Input
Amino acid sequence: MADESDFLAGGLAPLRRRVPGSHECLQNQNNENRDREQRSTTNRLHWLKGSSSSYWLTRIVLLRSVALIYFVAFLVAFNQNKQLIGNNGITPADRYLERIKMQTSERGRRGDLPVDGDARRELLLKEGVTWEDLQYAPTLLWFVDWHSMDQHLDNVALAGLFISGFVLLSGSANMLLMFALWLLYHSLVSVGQRWYSFGWESQLLETGFLAIFLCPLLTLRAVPECSPPSRIVLWAYRWLLFRIMLGAGLIKIRGDQCWRDLTCMDYHYQTQPVPGPLAYYLHQSPPLVHRVETLGNHVVELGLPWLLLIPQRHCLLVAGLVQVAFQVVLILSGNLSFLNWLTIVPALACFDDRSLSRLFSRDTRVSLLRAQERQHRGYGHLGFFVRRVLHLSLGALLVHLSLPVVHNLFSSQQLMNGSFDPLRIVNTYGAFGSVTKTRTEVVLEGTHDRDPAEASWREYSFQCKPGAVSRRPCIITPYHYRLDWLMWFAAFQHYESNNWFLLLTAKLLRNEARASELLHDNPFADSSPPRFIRASHYRYEFTQMGSDEAARGQWWKRRRIGTYMPARSNDSVSFLPPPVASPYHASSNALVATVVSVSILVCRCLF
Output
């Protein structure tokens, strides 16, 4: 019986596997369907690698890159704004806003304001914020309690850190988040005064403004369906990169003679604002190498940017790769804040999904395929036409605001870094139009002695700028020490022309903690304040590799060339309030930029 049962079981098993609807049959069919679907997906992914007509993955890379720069910028703000523009900072933002209000109010123009500072401030605050105030300084800080400016500056920076960190980690964003980042940073730049007066601030605002229109309104998916990235925004990024590079090239050719005779790189590595360790070695390259470097700079900045305007994939890829590589070299050779990192961002718009697909997981690429399939279904919907109209309006706005920028670009009186509208939507750029041939540094020194002529002086040390000759050049990029940067400019200007320098000196004479936080070392931090402070002028040079100085561990050699600021005490320090920035007059450009851009944002929110 056992043998018969085994025979029947073995003989009927193949028959059961052939019965339609049996478990084994259904499982085989499911496996075949799953294999067929996987083969289809694999074929479509292979098609994606060969496709050069989509930029969904490009958007993810762009948003993460913009978020990274925002994160660094807000981190710098959080760590340094209280010391620079806080209530007890070197140039307080609340007093800056108060001076603006004194110029824009009717009573201020008539000189009919109380002498008492608190009474004057309360009276000015009661007048409210006017359009003219916003033209001087478009910032949210008009609407907060100025007595708690430190807290509000921290709140703005922390909000920016949180939002940019989310976008950086997730790779997804919407218009509201990117608009918030732009508005928050704009609020800081507008009250940053001299500390925020450099080209990369406007460049970040322009880059961040364009990023708003890369995103859908509300969804936070990395690959949002029915909302493909706008080609107009991608071309706007390429146009931004074109202006940055060509502007930098033209300002050099029109500026210092050394750019025309190919000798500027003989000096640049040593005399740049904050050199890095690699600059020490690059500076000592043979003269022929420096000639090739200078010539290569002209090719990259004057010749290759024109490839960005050619709508051919290979031209864009070459232009993007060269510009990214060029910025990486600059990053390695010096500490130019986040400028070079930021310049890489618009170059990423040159790369399509085909060139970036290997950077993403299979799941992300599958999501992209689904979004591409559903994208075509939305072409006839109202939302599609609304987005198209809004993007075209954005393009028209950028064209209009680019007219004075183009005129400036090709003018013999080219402005290096500037804006023609209060929102800094389209700006002019340039860098190193002139190159200093020798490096001079301002060295601050203090003493407890009563007679400055016979005093023993102790030196203040800054975070990153050259000081002690044995201190290795720092690596901080993309981070940025704003005081160190301005100290480089102060070295070839008169000290009385830099009001912030006098204010810094006054605070160090009182040993104020906020000012000391900006330094690497305050020699009087654990003692009474210095009786006198002076500033000496030194000439710095890199030591030669293999020299006795280098063998002793010295990166620099220096020689005192004179007194930059004579010894001063608390009784002798005097200063004037920092000047208020010129307003953006209500010209057609400013009005069009403001009205049209706000209208675009409002319409996008409605639809």
